[in-house]
Amino acid sequence: MARDRNDPTAFGLASARLAGMLRSLGWVAAGLALALLFWFLTVDVMALPRFRNLPRLAEVLSEWASTQPVYGLSIHTREYYEHIAYSLARVLAAFGLATLLGVPLGLAMGTSRRVREYVFPLFEILRPIPPLAWVPLAILMFRGTETPIVFLTFLASFYATTLNTMLGVQSIDASLIRAAKCLGAGPWTMFRRIILPGTLPAIFGGLQLSVGVAWFSLVAAEMVSGEYGLGYIINTGYSMATYPTIFIGMFTLGIVGFATSAAIRGVERALTQWRRTSLGEQA
Amino acid sequence: MTAGGAGAARGRLVIENAVKAYDTPAGPALAVDNCSLSVEPGEICMIVGPSGCGKTTLLNAVAGFHDLSSGRIALDGVEIAGEGVQAEPGPDRVVVFQNGALFPWMTALDNVMFGPLAQGALGPAQARDKARAMMADAGLADAQDMYPAQMSSGIRRRVEIVRAMMNDPAILLLDEPYRAMDSLTRAMMHEALLEMHARRPVTILFITHDLEEAVFLGHRIVVMSARPCRPTLELDIDMPFPRKYAMTAGDAYRGYVQAALEAVHVEAVKSFAAGEKEAA
Predict the structure, then answer these.
(1) Which ipTM was obtained for this model?
(2) How far away is chain A from the Cα of B138, in angstroms, using its nearest Cα?
(3) Domain A65-281: which CATH class?
(4) Minimal Cα–Cα distance from A268 to chain B, Å?
(5) What is the dihedral of CA A209, A215, A219, A221, to 10 degrees?
(6) Which among B232, B280, B279, B265 has a CA at the least distance from the CA of B36?
(7) Which phi-psi region, left, alpha or beta, contains residue A252 (left: φ > 0; alpha: ψ -120 to 50)?
């Protein structure tokens, strides 16, 4: 319902929400600080046997922020952003393809028993094969460096999206389907106004997983082939023994990966407003 | 028969010798056996019986969710179940479900508009106007823009009944719609339902196992036997409409509840004994 601008409770709700956000930001900061402290203590202070060979926290941070990085990669170098751009573009291409193919296939498998019987057994046989096992085939089948990487990144993503979508269709409450039939819904109305919105939360659950596994497989693929990308940085950092660069690659991967799933959560929140019950959460 | 307000010409339901058997690993099991029942236009017919007696199976056959094994069901002379008839739900007999079935992703108004839009019976603007007017009549104007998750269970159920009535159904099929509610909310639901029925006397087939509810709402109570389901007693409730909650303290009301209770008790004992036998 429309809320009055002068309504005192509107202000109260907004400030309560702000306080809540600040509080959770505080927890996030505390969690990060603890992890960094752990690193500092184990490597710098105690120099524990297993941790002795790792770069120090300060070393990594100063390299990352340096205008003249010792190993050639920091936030001030153009190359750093090229690596990010390559990885991001590959993930988005693979994720986009997985979504475009996986959502319709999942919907078809969920709604049609015939389609499910055709596709599901094959799907379930292919699904446990890890992306790394596809590497030889990907290199034989696709030309250049980009297409095999995108293909390998696409695979796990596609399974996650398709499977979640299918399960989402099947989890729609049977009385909703019956109610829609009672009210005279034909197949198209049923699909567009019941099946699709009813599956949306599950689809987005799948997309969250999908983008996560896309990053997993991307790094594996970039370690095998390619001359750019965050996986490539990490792999060459190891073979060239430039250890701070490995950490820069890992952290950047984490941050960019987090940003992609946060973006998906944002879209989901906007599309499934109906799931939020309290007025305070209603945007 | 006290049933049937003025102008309620539609909504005569005739069930003849309905049988519904299910295949189970132990052989066919009868859910409904040789059940005959007719409901007059505008009548509120309450079906009571022990839990799991097959009442819902009967209602689902009327709704068109499944076929009968034999027998026939006709609504206003048109056969809707029987030999050679394909079971198919339709907006002339809308079900209100036990656990509620508002579409969670639509506002109350969009839920109410769903039927006429899905059938192509009304354009969006007309459907919206009609839905607004019907919600206002039912005292639900404030709930129009709420999503089901934001409504109380009572409001949800009332919106669902308005959604059904939007289609001008010949009969309303209610399957224990107030089962999970507290008694206070339930009392309000009962009065709201009767008010709605006074405005628009649709035929109502109402399943419940709550005898007080059955006596308060019904023109007639039909007590069903334990599985397989078949009418064993019909009780006309000769109390005037509009019914008010004060009546529930009266002798007439208590007498009807007592009579229904005895009939149902006999069936409940039978069903319990049958269960014991199966378990042994």
Answers:
(1) 0.87
(2) 19
(3) mainly alpha
(4) 13
(5) 70
(6) B232
(7) alpha
In chain A, the residue whose alpha carbon lies closest to the alpha carbon of B165 is A183
Per-residue pLDDT of chain A (283 residues; tens, 9 = 90+): 444 445 556 667 778 888 888 888 888 889 889 988 988 888 888 888 887 778 888 888 888 888 888 888 888 889 999 999 999 999 999 999 999 999 999 999 999 999 999 999 999 999 999 888 998 898 889 888 889 999 999 999 999 999 999 999 999 999 999 999 999 999 999 999 999 999 999 999 999 999 999 998 998 888 877 789 999 999 888 888 888 899 999 999 999 999 999 999 999 998 888 887 654 444 3
CA-to-CA distance for B112 and B134, rounded, in angstroms? Answer: 9
Q: Residue ranges per domain, chain A?
A: 8-53, 65-281
Length of chain A: 283
The count of CB pairs under 8 A between chains A and B is 78
Rounded to 5°, angle at Cα B186 from B188 and B169: 80
- Write the CB contacts of B102 (distance below 8 Å, at least 6 apart in sequence): B108, B111, B148, B156, B159, B160, B163
Closest CA of chain A from B232, distance in Å: 30
Pick from A168, A109, A185: nearest CA to B113: A185
Domain ranges of chain B: 13-92+171-279, 103-168
Residue in chain B closest to A175 (alpha carbons) equals B101
The count of C-alpha atoms lying within 13 angstroms of the C-alpha of A20, restricted to the half-sphere facing its C-beta, is 8
Each residue's pLDDT tens digit, B52-90: 778 888 999 999 999 888 999 999 989 998 888 888 998
Tokens 């009546």: give the residue.
B247
Q: Name which of B57, B60, B54 is nearest B80 in CA terms.
A: B60
Locate B31 and state its tokens: 């859910």
State how far the Cα of B45 lies from the Cα of B98, in Å rounded to an integer: 17
Evaluate whether A152 touches A138 at the Cβ level (below 8 Å): yes
In order of B166, B198, B213, B228, the CA distances from B194 in angstroms are 17, 6, 12, 31
- Please give the CATH topology (third level) of the domain spanning B13-92+171-279: Rossmann fold (3.40.50)
Considering only the beta carbons, identify the residue of A173, A178, A184 that sits closest to B115: A184
Three-state secondary structure readout of chain B: CCCCCCCCCCCCEEEEEEEEEEEECCEEEEEEEEEEEEECCCCEEEEECCCCCCHHHHHHHHHCCCCCCEEEEEECCEEEECCCCCCCCCCCEEEECCCCCCCCCCCHHHHHHHHHHHHCCCCHHHHHHHHHHHHHHCCCHHHCCCCHHHCCHHHHHHHHHHHHHCCCCCEEEEECCCCCCCHHHHHHHHHHHHHHHHHCCCEEEEEECCHHHHHHHCCEEEEECCCCECEEEEEECCCCCCCCHHHHHCHHHHHHHHHHHHHHHHHHHHHHHHHHHHHC
Residues of chain A neighbouring B93 (CB-CB closer than 8 A): 182
